[in-house]
Amino acid sequence: MRARGLWLPPLTLVLALLLASLPWPRALAVWDPLWVPLVLVYWILMLPERVGIVTAWVTGLVDDVVHLTPLGEHAAVLAVVAYVVERWSLQIRLAPLPQQMAILYLLFTADRLLELWLAGSPVFAPGVFLPPLVTVLLWPFTRSVLARLARRARLRF
Amino acid sequence: MPRLATRGAGLFHRRPYQGTRLVLCLLASLALLGAARWARWRADLSDVETALSTPLPRLWHGVEGGTARWFDAWRSRRRLVARVRALERETLRLRARLETERALGLEDRRLRRILGLRRRLGVRAVAVPILRLPRDPYPPRMLLARGRAAGLATGMPVLDLRGLVGVVTTVRARSALVHLVVTRHTLVPVEDLRSRLLTFVEGTGRLHRLSLPFVPNGSDIRRGDLLVTSGVGGVYPPGYPVAVVTRVEPEPAYAFARVEARPLATPFRDRVVVVLLRAPRRKTEVAKRPAAGGAGTPPSVPPRKETPP
């Protein structure tokens, strides 16, 4: 069986990057979801063989480029997140949705904390805890949308 | 989604190497960060970075700006259309108002002159709107919109902005009839303002011509002389312009020259005239004036000339 539809993960990642670079209204900037980790986590969970740490690192690199952060910062953070997800992907996949969301909330918060720590900004701010919350609330929705897209694209590997 | 058994998908995609991959990635990050911090090509790198990173924000900026501009254009177009309509309406309104204002201004100027006239005359006067001028100019008569109720009485002189119009002859309760000076055989005692020659003008029945029937040949009267009321006889107050001499023709065969004048009053163009409420009665101001020409001459007699013809 040949792999097919593998263009979907990169495409959605690019979309996530676009969304992440979307200029938000200042009032909503604190709530800005972590689009890239969100999509990335989904693909790592669904395609652990194809999407993994390296993909995450490269995506993070692109994110760095987009956000004009020092090259490798986001990359490292995303690599760590990807490592955790990939390491326990089976468990996370099998967990019921609330549990999944709880785990992902911790993950995203860790992502944010790491990011802020690396960037050298104060860690305890609303910008640390609100975006993961919004991201996690988006998780079921994202999951169903991406699953539907994958089905539509007859994603197979 | 069916999961297949792990296939060899490259070095970094094997599950067993998770830790290795992570460490490698972290090392790569560190290397990049360190390189960015210490390397000499940091500037170049940031240039590359900038070159790579500008398209996305610029794209968003463009999209945002485009939509904003579009919305803006739409909104401002609507606003402009509304504004243009409002301005057009305003222009129409203002133009109409301007016309009114112009008319008002004319009227105002007229009224002011009338007021000034009143002050100049020093007598009580009232501005009276003209009700009607009969179509038939013979005899030319003027109907005023005020009558006895406004204090009008027969014998009151009627003036307009330019000159003497006539005299009130009939008074009803709320209207009055004016006998115009241009009526045929109407005599008004006048004085040549330049030479102080006292004489009469007589209505010819033509609206724009008066004749001076009693000017002896060789009198000091010229074309262009201003004739004002002399006050002789007491009906008309002195010093009010009546006519301008237009023609002086000596007629050696007769005692009097042929002299014509153009009345100054324009009753057919006026809207308002002034009626002097108390005509100075029997008070000939001519007598008080320093002797000039035939001062104190009885009005019925043609003015005496210093130099006989």
Quick summary:
Chain A is mainly alpha-helical and 157 residues long. Chain A is built from 7 helices and no strands. Chain A has helices at residues 8-21, 35-46, 53-67, 73-87, 89-94, 97-119, 126-152.
Notes on the structure:
The complex is a heterodimer of chains A (157) and B (309). By secondary structure, chain A is an all-alpha fold. Chain A contains 7 helices and no strands. In chain A, helix 3 (53-67) packs antiparallel against helix 4 (73-87) and helix 4 (73-87) runs antiparallel to helix 6 (97-119). The model of chain A has no long low-confidence stretch (mean pLDDT 85). With 309 residues, chain B is of the alpha+beta class. Chain B is 34% helix and 22% strand. Chain B is built from 4 helices and 12 strands; from the N terminus they run H-H-H-E-E-E-E-E-E-E-E-E-E-E-E-H. In chain B, the strands form 2 sheets. A 6-stranded antiparallel barrel of chain B has the order 1-2-5-4-3-12. The longest helix of chain B has 67 residues, at 55-121. The termini of chain B are far apart. Residues 1-14 and 282-309 of chain B have low confidence and may be disordered.
